[in-house]
Design brief:
The protein has 274 residues and is an alpha+beta fold. It folds into three domains: 2-91, D-Amino Acid Oxidase, subunit A, domain 2 (D-Amino Acid Oxidase, Chain A, domain 2, 2-Layer Sandwich); 108-145; 173-272, Helicase, Ruva Protein, domain 3. It contains eight helices and ten strands. The strands form three sheets. Strands 1, 2, 3, 4, 5 and 6 form a six-stranded antiparallel beta sheet that branches. A two-stranded antiparallel sheet has the order 7-8.
């Protein structure tokens, strides 16, 4: 595995809608500065790690590298105190057969392995190549099982929620065609109060996440159904008690569950705060 770290900054550090790519940093890495959800995401690093973990933690030298390099290209120099959130992820790189290659030189392409039982295992790849990965896996299954080949139809298939002409300044834009029923639910049930002004989150989103998106805990909502944890870790912690309260009401949970949920969320999110 290879670790990549990202920092989240306020939009004032990179006004406008354009992203910046630094194709070659001092140590030969690539750095991206990308407008995202009215913030700026800056990354990434490429650090080999010996052991994987469910909650990878950003290393101090990774944070320093990103801040020092990004300073040259932003409107003002970001300090550690300006970082709204820091998070690390692990890339499941498909290693080459020979040893000694640096992680940045390892192919980001995927590999498919067949087991004696017929089980197919896919490793490597990227989120941005998920459709191709799925196509290759199904094609491999067809060959292995001697099934009739059926050409893929996913290339132009619209994903759930597809909507034309989305307004990216709308904090609910990512719901696409689900935005209208979400707002209707919020208004009818009295869940249209604001949970966070800075992140543009309303209470109805919590209810919607439970009823329609299989959210089962506070982290599901704040980290995955929305991106509050990544966008502003401290603000997401402030939101956690109310999120737990709403979820408990929807899921039929008691006050003890709420307290435990908030404690668990604070613990995991502490890794996202410098």
């Amino acid at each position: 595995p290879s670790q990549g770290v990202h920092l989240m900054l306020d939009k004032s550090f990179l006004p406008g809608d354009d992203a910046i790519t630094i194709p070659k940093t001092d140590d030969g890495r690539v750095l991206f500065l990308v407008p995202w959800h009215n913030k700026v995401i800056v990354g990434t690093t490429d650090t080999p790690v010996k052991k994987e973990s469910l909650e990878p933690i950003a290393l101090e030298d990774e944070i320093g590298f990103i801040l020092n390099t990004a300073t040259r290209y932003l409107t003002k120099a970001p300090k550690r105190s300006d970082v709204l959130s820091v998070f690390a992820g692990l890339r499941p790189l498909a290693a080459p057969s020979e040893d000694g290659n640096k992680t940045k030189e390892i192919s980001r392409s995927h590999k498919i392995f067949s087991s004696d039982s017929g089980l197919l295992t896919i490793v490597g790849g990227k989120w941005t190549t998920f459709r191709k990965m799925g196509e290759d896996l199904v094609d491999k299954a067809e060959r292995n099982q001697q099934w009739k080949h059926i050409a893929t139809k996913t290339k132009n298939l619209k994903i759930h929620g597809y909507k034309k002409d989305v307004d990216l300044n709308n904090p609910l834009y990512f719901y696409g065609s689900d935005e209208e029923p979400l707002l209707k639910l919020s208004k009818e049930k009295g869940w249209n109060a604001t949970l966070s002004n800075s992140l543009g989150v309303i209470e109805g989103q919590v209810v919607w996440a439970v009823q329609n998106e299989m959210a089962l805990n506070v982290e599901d909502f704040l980290a995955r159904r929305t991106r509050c944890q990544l966008l502003d870790a401290k603000e997401s912690v402030r939101m956690a008690p109310r999120v737990a309260e709403i979820m408990a009401s929807e899921l039929g949970k008691d006050s003890e569950w709420q307290v435990k949920q908030v404690e668990d969320y604070k613990k995991v999110t502490s890794n996202y705060i410098i």
